[in-house]
UniProtKB/TrEMBL annotation:
Domain Pyruvate phosphate dikinase AMP/ATP-binding: 59-289, 303-356
Family membership noted in the UniProt record: Belongs to the PEP-utilizing enzyme family.
GO molecular function, one term: ATP binding
Domain PEP-utilising enzyme C-terminal, chain residue ranges per copy: 537-882
Residues in PEP-utilising enzyme mobile domain copies: 421-502
The keyword Metal-binding belongs to this UniProt entry's keyword annotation: yes
Keywords, comma-separated and alphabetical: ATP-binding, Kinase, Magnesium, Metal-binding, Nucleotide-binding, Pyruvate, Transferase
Active-site positions on this chain: H454, C844
Pfam families named in the record: PEP-utilizers, PEP-utilizers_C, PPDK_N
The protein's name in its UniProt record: Pyruvate, phosphate dikinase
EC number: 2.7.9.1
Task of the protein: Catalyzes the reversible phosphorylation of pyruvate and phosphate.
Cofactor(s) named in the record: Mg(2+)
Length: 884
């Protein structure tokens, strides 16, 4: 198969659709070339070469031949020759996988320079300073990436050079100083590696290609893929691109830009650049870059070309682009374009604006929004009544408010996070090596770098708060502290960041709900909330596309209201036991549990009934017109018992028992394996009066609410059924209670009785169970637990190792296991509907708010999913994606 794809002279072998073969960078370089956008010519080595090289370490002859031919073509197109002493072709060797992994792998610039070609470059350009600057950059990058010489050693030599020459920046170093520096670099390489630096450009080229392939397995790259669920099997493409130079003087430069603001989504070109600089100088935060608007006066012709090009690229790719460009002696070149990372608020705004601009359809807008991203809109911000003055203000790179202890080192961040602390990683700037520290931190703060710096891009991508370019910070690594003006902050001190405004505060400040949350709870009107309005509009579009209904798991009227305001269409799970944990109720509950006879139990239940009834009424009201599924008492009884001490003394007193008597009762209730013990419908079977009381409370509440004009639709759910006869038994009690209540109250309301399917035996005998059930709700937490035989409460000790070792691809408690649990579910749906065609089917486990699991529910024909109130928007959007 073909391994090399050329681009240059206005045409390319590849296109944007070939990302899996060429990697994103290569595919888009090809696409830009075909578009006629100025891109320096080059060629791309397909990613499958990386995969095979990493497998066997071999580079075969036929492939070498392909590369040689492409290089010859590049010489032809550029009119320069690789290794030619008078007019040398120089190239960059760049990584680029099919999924963007910014800064995770390696790039080498100025390859092809040696002691002879550098002279040629000096002559050809008439600029020896530039030639030696390029050479020393090449030596340093190549030694770092290919030969493993630590970059810091080069930085040290460069630093001393500045000092001995009495200058403060690299660009002030003269040609002679740089020539001397090149010798020192070469000595350093000889000394560290025991070999001469390779002067043969062919050796350089293959060394660089192999290093790029190997960079696929660098720790930071592997970490990045793990966090972002990118398969390790993709491999990276390698791009060999002829060099253009931003370091040729004051009429040259390099920069990065976004076609729209990545933080707010505002439609304005947003970028940063540096004059007389090369490659990554901007992103690395080595010098603080200039605002793109300044380019208009400094490099006017290139600026005009850039504006036209960015507009063209955005229209062509029909999405916000993140671009890299270089200006060589006034001429603009594009070196990269890709879909830009953005905050959720920006993503919303851009999608809606692009629909208005006629660039994309409503459907595309819905599909572009990733369901899990919506979470970010609910992040808290610093309370508006906090009067603290900011210590410093940096660039607001990624929103959200976060407090934590200051940590200056990524390893320390990882360690203290693992120990349960909230940390904020503070650095001069971050590099891809810091990735694990960013993962561990709640937020990132840097002293240098712009909105396009590494820290900004990575944090934004992870939905973490970040402030960058906060120039007031002076970090001292020896003292493990930083100074901001008069203030000294030590490692371990608390600070608070406001990523939305860029403000840094001392201490642990209180936060308040986000705009979207404040509209939800009525504290803010939608008229004053533009982000909320965008959110609501997009959700409305999503609703037009989805088939699945979305309900919420809510146990209180308050949760029910939050859920409804987020668009929940009913309650899929109301856990009655949660109602017993509050205040005085727990006492009544305990009385019920330790009652020695039926009379005692009934007396306690009579006390509980009005409390339950009031809660149900509130929930019915909040869900007027929508179904409410109420699950009968589920957990093992001893969960409610006193834990000794004061609690036990009081309970014994109120029951007229002695402490030893109470202790005996409690001991008798102890179970060896409570999750498989006396719980769920087993309670209602042994103590039918519990089921009866709960059913009465539900029906009385329903009739009362109905009398107040509320449209009530209770659905009573019997938990932990494994055989149809259990459900039949409970159903009789519930129906009897319904007839009694409605008879006495003289009013009927419609209701359903159904069951949870959360045990394998229930799933397997679903056809029989459906004879007694109006609906099934899959309790996938327990069903996962019982199908895997895996205790959810203990799995934390070993499941992470399973994920690490790749034994399981994902935690089955987070992402529904299609292969096993999913098989039981789809069987149960089919078998159940074979008995009862109109059987309603839903899910109420944690999985109901997880996008991949929602997609599964859609595929197997569920009627609805139910999830936590805060996941309702995620589920609505995921349901739309599943349907599109
Ligand atoms: P990354 O994936 O980390 O962004 P790149 O391969 O894009 O790495 O390159 C790093 C930097 O070098 C970028 O700023 C890019 O624009 C610049 N660069 C790469 N190739 C060339 C080239 N042929 N000429 C000039 N600059 C280049
Ligand atoms: Mg790049
Ligand atoms: Mg359960």
């Amino acid at each position: 198969t073909r391994s090399v794809y050329f681009f240059g002279n206005g045409s390319a072998d590849g296109t944007r659709d070939m990302k899996t073969i060429l990697g994103g960078k290569g595919a888009n370089l090809a696409e830009m070339t075909n578009l006629g956008v100025p891109v320096p010519p080059g060629f791309t080595i397909a990613a499958h070469r990386c995969v095979s090289y990493l497998a066997d370490g071999l580079v075969d002859e036929a492939f070498r031949e392909e590369v040689t031919r492409a290089l010859e073509r590049l010489e032809e197109v550029s009119g320069k020759r690789f290794g030619d002493a008078s007019n040398p072709l120089l190239v960059s060797v760049r990584s680029g996988a099919s999924v963007s992994m910014p800064g995770m792998m390696e790039t080498i610039l100025n390859l092809g320079l040696n002691d002879e070609t550098v002279e040629g470059l000096a002559k050809a350009s008439g600029n020896p300073r530039f030639a030696y600057d390029s050479y020393r950059r090449f030596l340093q990058m190549y030694a770092d990436v290919v030969l493993g010489v630590p970059i810091a050693k080069f930085e040290q030599l460069l630093g001393s050079k500045r000092v001995t020459n009495g200058v403060t920046t690299d660009s002030e170093l003269s040609a002679d100083a740089l020539r001397a520096l090149v010798h020192e670099y070469q000595q350093l390489i000889r000394f560290t590696t025991g070999h001469e630096f390779p002067m043969d450009p062919q050796v350089q080229l293959w060394g660089a290609i192999e290093a790029v392939w190997n960079s696929w397995t660098l720790k930071k790259a592997v970490d990045y893929r793990r966090v972002n669920s990118i398969p390790h099997t993709l491999g990276t493409g390698v791009n060999i691109v002829s060099m253009v130079f931003g370091n040729m003087g004051e009429d040259s430069g390099t920069g990065v830009a976004f076609t729209r603001d990545p933080s707010t989504g505002e439609r304005r070109f947003y970028g940063e650049f540096l004059v007389n600089a090369q490659g990554e100088d901007v992103v690395a935060g080595i010098r603080t870059p200039l605002h793109i608007d300044d380019m208009e006066t400094m490099l006017p012709a290139a600026y005009t070309a850039l504006m036209a090009t960015q507009d063209r690229l955005e229209k062509h790719f029909r999405d916000m682009q993140d671009i890299e460009f270089t200006v060589e002696r006034g001429t603009l070149y594009l070196l990269q374009t890709r879909t830009g990372k953005r905050t959720t608020a920006a993503a919303l705004r851009i999608a809606l604006d692009m629909v208005d601009e006629g660039l994309i359809s409503q459907r595309e807008a819905v599909l572009r929004m990733q369901p899990n991203q919506l979470d970010q809109l609910l992040h808290p911000v610093i309370s508006s009544d906090v009067r603290a003055t900011a210590l410093a203000v940096g660039l607001p790179a990624s929103p959200g408010a976060a407090s934590g202890i200051v940590v200056f080192d990524p390893d320390v961040a990882e360690r203290r996070h693992a120990a349960g602390e909230q940390v904020i990683l503070v650095r001069e700037e971050t590099t891809p090596e810091d990735f694990h520290g960013i993962v561990a931190a709640r937020a990132v703060l840097t002293a240098r770098g712009g909105m396009t710096s590494h820290a900004a891009v990575v944090a934004r991508g992870m939905g973490k708060c970040a402030i960058v370019g906060c120039t007031a910070l002076e970090i001292s690594h020896e003292q493990r502290s930083m100074r901001i003006g008069e203030h000294v902050i030590n490692e371990g001190d608390w600070i608070t960041l406001d990523g939305g405004t860029g403000r840094v505060f001392a201490g642990d400040l209180p936060t308040q709900p986000s705009e979207v949350m404040r509209v939800n709870n009525g504290a803010l009107s939608a008229a004053d909330a533009p982000t909320y309005r965008g959110f609501a509009k997009l959700m409305g579009w999503a609703d037009e596309d989805r088939r699945l209904r979305v309900r919420a798991n809510a146990d209180t009227p308050r949760d029910a209201r939050v859920a409804r305001n987020f668009g929940a269409e009913g309650i899929g799970l109301c856990r009655t036991e949660h109602m017993f944990f509050e205040g005085e109720r727990i006492t009544a509950m305990r009385e019920m549990i330790v009652a020695r006879d039926l009379g005692g139990r009934r007396r306690a239940l009579e006390k509980l009934l009005p409390m339950q009834r009031a809660d149900f009424e509130g929930i019915f009201q909040a869900m007027d017109g929508f179904p409410v599924t109420i699950r009968l008492l589920d957990p093992p009884l001893h969960e409610f018992l006193p834990h000794g001490g004061e609690e036990s003394t009081m309970l014994a007193q109120s029951l007229g028992l002695t402490r030893p008597e109470l202790a005996r009762i409690v001991a008798a209730l102890h179970e060896t394996n409570p999750m498989l013990g006396h719980r769920g419908c087993r309670l209602g079977i042994v103590y039918p009066e519990i089921t009866e009381m709960q059913a009465r409370a539900i029906f009385e509440a329903a009739v009362r609410a109905h009398r107040r004009g509320i449209d009530v639709r209770p659905e009573i759910m019997v938990p932990l059924v494994s055989d149809v006869s259990e459900l039949r038994h409970q159903r009789e009690i519930i129906e009897r209670a319904a007839d009694q209540v409605m008879g006495v109250m003289g009013e009927r309301v419609p209701y359903l009785i159904g069951t949870m399917i959360e045990l394998p035996r229930a799933a397997l005998t679903a056809g029989e169970i459906a004879t007694e059930a109006d609906f099934f709700s899959f309790g996938t937490n327990d069903l996962t637990q019982t199908t895997f035989g895996l205790s959810r409460d203990d799995a934390g000790r070993f499941l992470p190792h399973y994920i690490d070792k790749g034994i399981l691809a994902e935690d089955p408690f987070q992402v529904l296991d299609r292969k096993g649990v999913g098989k039981l579910i789809s069987w149960a749906v089919r078998d159940g509907r074979a008995t009862r065609a109109d059987l309603k089917v839903g899910i109420c486990g944690e999985h109901g708010g997880e996008p991949q699991s929602v997609a599964f529910c859609h595929e197997v024909g569920f009627d609805y999913v139910s999830c936590s109130p805060y996941r309702v928007p995620v589920a609505r959007l995921a349901a739309a994606h599943a349907a599109l």
